[in-house]
Amino acid sequence: MKRLLFFVTVLLLAGCAHQAPLMTAPTSAVNLPAPPPLRQYAGSQLIFDCANTTLSEENQAILQRDVTYLLANPSAKVLVTGYAKYQGSVNYSLAQTEMRIQAVADALKLKGVDPNRLQRVNYGPSDRNYQSPNCRVTLTYVEN
Amino acid sequence: MFHGNRSKGVYRLTKIFMMMLCLMGASHAFALDLELTKGVKQALPIAILPFAATTAPSVDLAQVITEDLQASGRFQVLSRTAYSQNPSRVSEIDFSYWQTLKMNNLLMGSIQNQGGGQYQIQYTLLDLFNNKAATQQVLNASTLSPNNNPVLLSQTIMVHVKKAQDLRAAAHQIADQVYLALLGEQGIFTSKLAYISVHPNADGSDLYKLRIADYDGYRARTLVSSTLPLLTPTWSPDGQQVAYVSYEAGHAQIYAQDVSTGQRQLLSDFEGGNFAPAYSKDGESMALMSGKTGLPQLYLLSLKDSSVTQLTNEWSITTSPVFTPDSSALVFVSNRGGQPQIYRLNLSDHSITRLTFSGVENTDPAISPDGKELAFLSGRQGQYAIANLDLASGNMDLLTEAGRVNSPAFSPDSQRVIYTTYLEGRSVLVEMRADGNFKQALRQEKEDVYEPAWSPYGEDAR
User: Fold this and answer.
1) How confident is the model at residue A6 (pLDDT cuts 50, 70, 90)?
2) Which of A54, A97, B383, B425 is the most exposed place for a label (fewest CB within 10 A)?
3) Model pLDDT, residue B12
4) Closest CA to B281 of B327, B213, B334
């Protein structure tokens, strides 16, 4: 567990414009007690060859750390977010990103992580001006 | 230096030069278009006289009509410096003068500002050679009969505008009328574009906008803006709605928005994302891609009862669905053969036929509204060109050079293709003829624009 801490860093959301937005409680006219703030921790970042959608052995090895964390913290949810370089067809790139997210989801499931703990977000190349330098899938742990 | 390839080289230079100039300002586009129409056979010579006005309106109607007809490649408009006569009524026209200038047709008109944003516009289109009385130098009303009447069109329209720029809409309407009268075909000058624009904010974040503009890029307005990405707009077949992907909820959903009222509707919110919306031609269903079963597959969503049918079930990617004009089939992209290629899915027997064979990667299919051609993105090692496939003959042509071009879409008359490319570091819209000629960058603000969609034929109401 201690070994894990050095790569699990708290995300400062305000400074992370290109990260997936937090799930927030719906706004309501009724004054409900504020929900406890969500805590997010950065998990691994898996870099893919943009022409490829399969999980390399290297990425599988990296993902093992996330599996260890998620199995040790069963209440944590995990946000699996895909990004791609803006190059060529936007729709095809989104579909490739979907395949990469699925490859990560499959690997987590195989290692015993309940698929219901996953939330998938496919940004693909949609953040066009930021010009994502690579194709990647990031994991973010979300705890209540 | 020139050797045998002179005309091609000169043409290419002209193209690049034209694009640069067009970016600097639309007023330059005119002169360059003239250059380009010089070599075109069957471009109809026409004189478009400045519209008479007591006080000159801020929009030069004749200039807008000139740019419309010139950009179509079907007309050669006489330069204003090439003539000295300026008749203001039909009876003042010296037919032999215009015939000497080798003009087939002449358009003349007037615009009256009646105050309060109200304008009265009158215009007359003449056939200079159908005048049997042409031996007479001046047309005399008494010589006119149904058989030798040179007046092809004569109309008076009342226009109410909020902004002076909106007079451009009236000019486009007149251009449509002239085009129809002389070529017997519907013009595209009142059609619209929808596209995504991205503006960097001062804090480094981006603002995404779905914008609607005239077909020439003018009069752009924002339909929706978001701090989270917007993607791939597409028009409903009646031109009243634009559907698009929005990440406003933190993941990709498909919305439809009414172009006139701005009213929005959430159409598709499957877990696993909702992408690549495409309306069927009857407007009753929408094809889309979702990863809801884990893999990116195609679905058909009924817009009447919201029922959903899965269309593809493969171990490969399927995306970018587009209905054929008769809605009997969908054209889509799949990498079932290893690399992405374009296929056709017959919706009645579910048979699948491969359409593209040459090229490493073929994506982003767009079918011409007449169903005859398929434009798409043909790529190799990160370099992409717009290609065109004649569906009957199977002949494939590259319409652009390889580079960072993207997102081809056809005009409603199937004669033009719009796409994006990078010029001076900015993603811009370019329109060209469907044969790859007459490339012209559209006017745009300081923004990057992506994924243009061309509306169906325009209506005056829009």
Assistant:
1) very low
2) B425
3) 40
4) B327
Which residues in A have their CB inside 8 Å of a CB on B? 17, 20-23, 53, 87-92, 94-96, 98-99, 101-102, 105-106, 120-123, 126-130
B206 chain-A contacts, CB cut-off 8 A:
127, 129-130
pLDDT in tens, B85-97: 999 888 899 999 9
Residues contacting B308, CB < 8 A, separation 6+: B299, B300, B301, B302
CB spacing of A89 vs B273 below 8 angstroms: no
Q: Is A102–B295 a contact, with Cβ atoms under 8 angstroms apart?
A: yes
A5 is written with which tokens?
């801490």
Give the distance from residue B378's alpha carbon to the nearest chain A alpha carbon, in angstroms: 9
Q: How confident is the model at residue B367 (pLDDT cuts 50, 70, 90)?
A: very high
Tokens of A96: 């490739």
Better-predicted residue by pLDDT, B203 or B296: B296
What is the reported pLDDT for B329? 97
Q: What is the ipTM of this complex?
A: 0.86
Between CA B267 and CA B290 the distance in angstroms is: 13
Neighbours of B272 (CB within 10 A): 23
Nearest residue in B to A94, CA atom:
B275
Instruction: Check CB contact of B269 with chain A, cutoff 8 Å.
Output: no
Report whether pLDDT(B132) > 60: no
Nearest to A122 among B291, B340, B448 (CB): B291
DSSP character at residue B74: S
A46 forms bridges with which residues in the sheet? A137
CB-CB under 8 Å, B291 with A129 = no
In whole angstroms, give the CA distance from residue B218 to residue A12: 41
Each residue of B181-190: b (16+ CB within 10 Å) or e?
Answer: ebeeeebbbb
Is B273 near chain A, with CB under 8 Å?
yes
B289 interfaces chain A, CB cutoff of 8 Å: yes
> What confidence tens digit (pLDDT) does each residue in B309-350 have?
999 998 899 999 999 999 999 999 999 999 999 999 999 999
Contact A130, A59 (CB under 8 A): no
What is residue A26's three-state secondary structure? coil
